[in-house]
Amino acid sequence: MRLEASIDVARLILLYGLAFRGHDESESSTNQGLFLGFLRWHEDKHPDMGKVILENAPQNDTLTCPIIQKDIINACAKETLKAIIGDLNGDYFVILVDESNDISHKEQMALVLRYVDKNAEVVERFVGLVHVSDTSACSLKEAIYSLLSDYSLSPSQIRGQGYDGASNMRGEISGLKTLIMKDSSSAYYIHCFAHQLQLTLVAMSKKHLDVEDFFCHVTNVLNVIGVSFKRRDLLRHLQAEKLEQLLESGEIHTGRGLNQERGLQRPGDTRWGSHFKTLDNFIVIFSSIIRVLEVIEHEGSTSNERNQAKYFLSEIITFKFVFMLHLMLKVLAMSNELNKILQKRDQDIVNAVEFLKITKKRLQDMRETGWESLLDDVSSFCHMHDIIIPKMDESYFPEKSKRKSSGICYSHHLRVDIFYAVIDVQLQELNDRFGVVSSELLLGMANLNPVNSFANFDKGRIMVLAKCYPNKFDEVQIRDLSYQLDTFIIHMRAGNPKFSNLQGISDLAKALVETNLVETYSYVYLLVKLTLILPFATATVERAFSSMKQIKNEERNNMGDQYLNDCLVC
After folding, report:
1. Contacts of 472 (CB under 8 A, 6+ apart)
2. What gap in Å lies between CA 121 and CA 244, rounded to an integer?
3. Kind of pairing, strands 93-101 and 107-116?
4. Which among 410, 202, 402, 212 has a CA at the least distance from the CA of 324?
5. What is the pTM of this model?
């Protein structure tokens, strides 16, 4: 019973990633930490338990010392990993790897396994964190293989590799993926789609000066207001007043989840979604931002603050800034659903590619038909905030040369030099950075998509896909797959309700399991599984590092590597 109490408390603390020990664990201490604190709660609430724990336990068998706590945590980690490896059941898997510094500036490499379980669910499980003093390709490979060996997993079972590409080890990725493919030729590497998507925005800022200037102004304004808690409080107060006025006038309505407080979120360097949220919030609280800058302009404590606020105010209450604000929000919105898909661990690469195609089509549609609606939105916004709207047929004078006309009208500058140019750069970057979607591997996988009664089904391309996995498909198995595919497609299109409204490869896998057809179409199901596990994002590994920074923080910066790893696994 004593051991049971210690294990229960440890599991609860591990579940929430909290600290076990307090500042002082002596009997007279008022801050003994959560482990002893929860045991005392046990003692108070469960008299039978209280009779055998803490002071009522034999002094040499209290099961509460730090060593015992670490032993319990290690045992929990081992049981967790045992369950994960059992769930994998010797099947093929993909490795997702990333690297980051912990609070003590030690290089830590995280490993996540992606696989399909017996219920045809795509699963991503964190299995270990390793301190790597050397981030060369050979050292990283040894660290990965050592972890796999600990769990009796063979590198020959690897069927894909996923890396962020934005970490400190990005220079070694090329060498690492090559080394692993030497041992497992079918361990295909797909560059993280989420990172590629972010790079399109970075490239757009570098290639288009107006975009770069715009994000610079947005960041500076947010910094000026966000640097002081008094200014942030003023912003919240002004926004609350505006919200109350709109509710009273009936322009907006109350409801659950509506009218939530909008804050100042700075755009992150490596997060597409943060830019979208920043611009969305900027538009909603625009009038409040203007008011705060006006207050700083007149009441700032130094002349530098007042002049800075005056300058930024003059920059953002212009038609061009408002135009860029609405344009960039629309461009980012086109890819926002793709960004959300890339953060979900249960999505497959075929689905991600479909959303990529949708994103490019929407951008093209916006280029062809979206100019008038954008201009209407910008003009309406300017009317609402008393911003001067220039005459579109007048000559455009570049900002750096106010006296010299550019020879074009203002409408031409906005439409051709900015609207068309920005969309064209974004489309070009999407095409360049996601060129992998046209590979034989992904084209074959796309032909397994069951949407619209397997409208994309192409036996030839699926056969080519199978040949991408020579270790599993020899000449005899390729022949058997050919026979299976002939029967399979007839069966799928025969009108069975189980297969008539499938929305993706994941649905197909589950339907084959539910109808006990996995053995009948074993080779088809294998290709389906290989499609599902092929990685396209590394969000799960990044979440592991978020947990690491929560667990090993400034107050717990002396945690050992094994202790940290065990806490993360649990």
Report:
1. 186, 526
2. 47
3. antiparallel
4. 212
5. 0.72
CA 42, 45, 49, 53 torsion-angle sign: positive
Three-state secondary structure along 31-99?
Answer: CCCHHHHHHHHHHHHCHHHHCCCHHHCCCCCCCCCHHHHHHHHHHHHHHHHHHHHHHHCCCCEEEEEEE
3-state secondary structure 22-48: CCCCCCCCCCCCHHHHHHHHHHHHCHH
Q: How many angstroms separate the CA atoms of 215 and 321, rounded? A: 10
Q: How far apart, in whole angstroms, are the C-alpha atoms of residue 217 and residue 210?
A: 11
CA distances from 22 to 18, 40, 261, 553 (A): 11, 14, 36, 14
**Element containing residue 443 per DSSP (H, E):** helix 440-446
User: 99: closest CA among 89, 109, 91?
Assistant: 109
Quote the tokens at residue 570.
């649990």
In tens, the pLDDT along 326-354 reads: 999 999 888 887 777 777 665 667 777 78
| Residue in the block written with tokens 């409408």 | 411
Say what the pLDDT of residue 261 is: 45
CA 346 vs CA 246, 295, 311, 354: distances in Å: 41, 48, 47, 15
- CA 114 – CA 344 distance, rounded (Å): 12
Length of the chain: 570
Interatomic CA distance for residues 151 and 475, integer angstroms? 33
Q: Which residues contact 69 (CB under 8 A, 6 or more apart)?
A: 6, 10, 20, 21, 35
Distances (CA, A) of 179 to 136, 158, 535: 12, 12, 18
Asked if 81 contacts 568 with a C-beta cutoff of 8 angstroms, the reply is no
Single-letter residue type at 316: I
- Phi and psi at residue 557, in whole multiples of 5°? -85, 5
Q: What are phi and psi of 35, to 5 degrees?
A: -60, -55
Give the rounded distance of the alpha carbon of 187 from its chain centre. 23
Return the exposure string of 350-371: e unless at least 16 CB atoms fall within 10 Å of the residue's CB, then b. bbbbbbbeebbebbeebbeebe
Query: Are the beta carbons of 464 and 444 closer than 8 angstroms?
Result: yes
The predicted pLDDT at position 439 comes to 67
Long-range CB pairs of 146-149 (<8 Å, 24+ gap) are 147/111
Residue whose C-alpha is closest to residue 179's, from 134, 140, 127 = 140
Residue ranges, the chain, pLDDT below 70: 1, 24, 50, 56, 164-174, 242-274, 344-348, 399-406, 435-439
Beta-sheet strand order (sheet of 122-131): 122-131, 107-116, 93-101, 158-163
